[in-house]
Amino acid sequence: MSEFSLIEKYFKPLQGKLQYVDVGIGDDCAVVSVPSGFELAMSMDTLVEGIHFFPDVNPEDLGYKALAVNLSDLAAMGAMPKWFTLSVTLPEENEAWLQSFCSGMQDLIKQYPISLIGGDTTRGPLSITIQVHGMMREGQRLLRSTAKVGDKIFVSGLLGDAGLALNAKMQKIALSPEALASVESRLLRPEPRLSLGRLLLASASSMIDLSDGLIGDLGHLAKASGVAAEIFCEKLPLSKYMQAHVDSTGDFTLPLSAGDDYELCFTVPPTSVQTCRCDVKDQAVAITEVGRIVAGSGVTCLLNGEEVEQGRGYQHF
Ligand SMILES: [Mg+2]
């Protein structure tokens, strides 16, 4: 199949509802218009076989996750998703694989206003690169560098399930089939917290998404803000399976340090906490206060007031 027919058959259907697109797939460049009063937010992520996913991954889950992790970065700035470009490197031409990969992305395109507007396919070791483009009102964005001493630290959703699933798949932790099915969906199908991210523009002081683990990512936020962070381990929001693991091992390493949760971690000034809770109360995902910003540097983990040994965030290299 020629590259042209691959594009027509598999990639054009990923255009979704084109918004603000003057020229889409099919020319040398895509051309988009950013309405006046808005700015463009851009982010790129690459997933490589053997590093970010198992060689036997279901291509549908891979397509979903490749786009979801990029959308999570837009969520972390409070941006609205609009467009993406896609580069797929495939070891061999495999239409069934492509069909399934694209249908995983389609699951997100149906839910969010995002359109494929261009890309590239090449032959080589399997890897996926996506660049997402989002829009934000001028000056309305949440950075990592603006947390202040005294701010409360919150996270969305539940922490550590993706890491629990990864450890179970690598046979490091034993889980019942029911438990594995539940936590595995968090590993394979993270939900980008886009509407939550936008709602937090009004009350949060800084934000990051949790790709590499709470300690690691909160550490980036603290460093960028020139402050330190304290995490209260007893307050971490855990699924019943994660809670059972923590209860039986006494070990908080997974919820503190495992990657791939794709929840939001954000800071809120004490005077805005009530507004924040009120703004997000109708969201499908809950938020939980898990710590506070203090003077100094680094991240300290406390369990009932006592400092506990820290795990480390996931390092890609
Ligand atoms: Mg990120």
What would you say this structure looks like, in words?
The strands form three sheets. A seven-stranded mixed sheet has the order 8-10-7-11-9-12-13. A four-stranded mixed sheet has the order 3-6-4-5. The model is unreliable at 312-317 (pLDDT under 50). A hairpin with a 2-residue loop joins strand 12 and strand 13 (306-307). The chain has two domains: 3-137, PurM-like, N-terminal domain (60s Ribosomal Protein L30, Chain: A, 2-Layer Sandwich); 152-307, Alpha-Beta Complex (Phosphoribosyl-aminoimidazole Synthetase, Chain A, domain 2). The protein has 317 residues and is an alpha+beta fold. The protein has ten helices and 13 strands.
Report the sheet with the most strands, covering strand number, pairing sense and barrel closure. 7 strands, mixed
Report the principal-axis shape. Answer: globular
Q: Would you give the CATH topology of the largest domain?
A: Phosphoribosyl-aminoimidazole Synthetase, Chain A, domain 2
Whole-angstrom Rg? 20 Å
Average pLDDT, all residues: 94
* Element-by-element helix/strand order: HEEEHEHEEEHHHEHEHHEHEEE
The protein's oligomeric status is single chain
**How many extended strands?**
13
- Share of residues in helices: 25-40%
Number of domains: 2
Provide the β-strand percentage band: 25-35%
Tell me the strand order in the biggest sheet. 8-10-7-11-9-12-13
Count of individual helical segments: 10
Q: Which structural class should the secondary elements be placed in?
A: alpha+beta
Assign the CATH superfamily of the largest domain: PurM-like C-terminal domain
**Poorly predicted residue ranges:** 312-317
Please give the CATH class of the largest domain.
Answer: Alpha Beta
CATH-derived architecture of the largest domain: Alpha-Beta Complex
